[in-house]
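Record 1 of the preview.
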Amino acid sequence: MDKQEGVYYHIYNRGTDKRAIFNNDRDYLRFIDGLERFRIDRRGEKLVDVISYCLMSNHYHLLVRSMASDGVAKFMGRFATGYTMYFNKKYDRKGVLFESGYKYRRIESAAYLLQTSRYIHLNPLSLTEPGWKTEGVRDAALAFDSLRRYPWTSLDVYLDEGADNDLVDCALILAMAGGREGYAELIKGDIEALSS
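->
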């Protein structure tokens, strides 16, 4: 991973042996709290901006922008360690929580940035449409509704005016998509493409 500022990355990881890394709502909330807390270092320097996220029972996806030299590595080191320590203590376990070190892809273009955010927000389809990536979806409207109802993504920040928060910086993606309605239409278009 390079040490440049302003570079976007898709970061993802899953539980060791594909085990759950979230057992209840409190775990999801603790993970989100860690995103907020560890994106700024102890000196007050912002390490990353969180652009979008999705938390599934056994894995997560993050889209971040590095805001400091080596910001992503510093953020992920503190963040993954903090969440693992919390999880291990809460569930009286030892050892690694995640399958390996986090995986990442550098985002090289505006089109790929927009596509990655949409992919992250589409991930919960696997709960209602398990084969969505290969077999498509049965009902596009129902699929979109299920995405809107899933609580552990940043999609609500993108689609709902009143859902803005201090964690997610959705301004660039929304500008690229033509606003909240444009982003919703892109997500709906992705789902419809899967249903044809």
